Amino acid sequence: MNNDIERVLYSREMIVERMNKLAAQLSTDYQDKRPLVISVLTGAVLFTVDMIERMDIKLQLDFIDVSSYYGGTHSTGEVKLVQDLNSEVQGRHVLIMEDIVDMGRTLKFLVDLLKERGAASIKVCSLLDKPEGRKVDIKADYVGFNVPNEFLVGYGLDYKGFYRNLPYVGILKPAIYEN
């Protein structure tokens, strides 16, 4: 797998250091709010688990699967709710955990859905933000790293389901996905 990576953008050490800072900030901001942390499947699972271990607050965890990629490299533009939450959102402080905010369509869909369901507040924490790719006016409230407009894999991000288990975030060689 490592041979398929053009270059590593963020090492495991860099990711851990940034997560420690984000988790400290989130612990302060959510100290008495008992948030519902929603991990967006499947990419954000590793980030979510590592983050909540670092957060010194009472929280509940749930998962949702929303997609517009369906295994490819480009968004279809159509957002689909693949798996819904098990938790009630009404009146809750919600913290969405994302792996990457790219075009923003998926995140906007999710935020609108949670607003519709009556969340008291909705904030987004994303490991990565790709502002150059944005097609929808939405942004994360807490961001690990701003990234270039490249196809990234590792630490939860995938190409056709592979590379999620890399301990770093890297740029996938175009030859891998241009076939």
Automatic annotation (TrEMBL):
Glycosyltransferase found in the keyword field: yes
InterPro entries (alphabetical): HGPRT (IPR050408), Hxn_phspho_trans (IPR005904), PRTase-like (IPR029057), PRTase_dom (IPR000836)
Gene Ontology molecular function terms on file: guanine phosphoribosyltransferase activity; hypoxanthine phosphoribosyltransferase activity; magnesium ion binding; nucleotide binding
Predominant location: cytoplasm
GO biological process: one example: purine ribonucleoside salvage
Sequence ranges assigned to domain Phosphoribosyltransferase in this UniProt record: 15-160
UniProt keyword annotations, A-Z: Cytoplasm, Glycosyltransferase, Magnesium, Metal-binding, Nucleotide-binding, Purine salvage, Transferase
Cofactor annotation: Mg(2+)
Localization, UniProt: Cytoplasm
Coiled-coil region list: none
Domain of life of the organism encoding this protein: Bacteria
Enzyme Commission numbers on file: 2.4.2.8
Catalytic activity: GMP + diphosphate = guanine + 5-phospho-alpha-D-ribose 1-diphosphate; IMP + diphosphate = hypoxanthine + 5-phospho-alpha-D-ribose 1-diphosphate
Gene Ontology cellular component annotations, sorted alphabetically: cytosol
Metabolic or biological pathway: Purine metabolism; IMP biosynthesis via salvage pathway; IMP from hypoxanthine: step 1/1; Purine metabolism; GMP biosynthesis via salvage pathway; GMP from guanine: step 1/1
Similarity section: Belongs to the purine/pyrimidine phosphoribosyltransferase family.
UniProt function note: Purine salvage pathway enzyme that catalyzes the transfer of the ribosyl-5-phosphate group from 5-phospho-alpha-D-ribose 1-diphosphate (PRPP) to the N9 position of the 6-oxopurines hypoxanthine and guanine to form the corresponding ribonucleotides IMP (inosine 5'-monophosphate) and GMP (guanosine 5'-monophosphate), with the release of PPi.
Name of the protein this chain belongs to: Hypoxanthine phosphoribosyltransferase
Organism for this UniProt entry: Limosilactobacillus frumenti DSM 13145
Record lineage: Bacteria, Bacillati, Bacillota, Bacilli, Lactobacillales
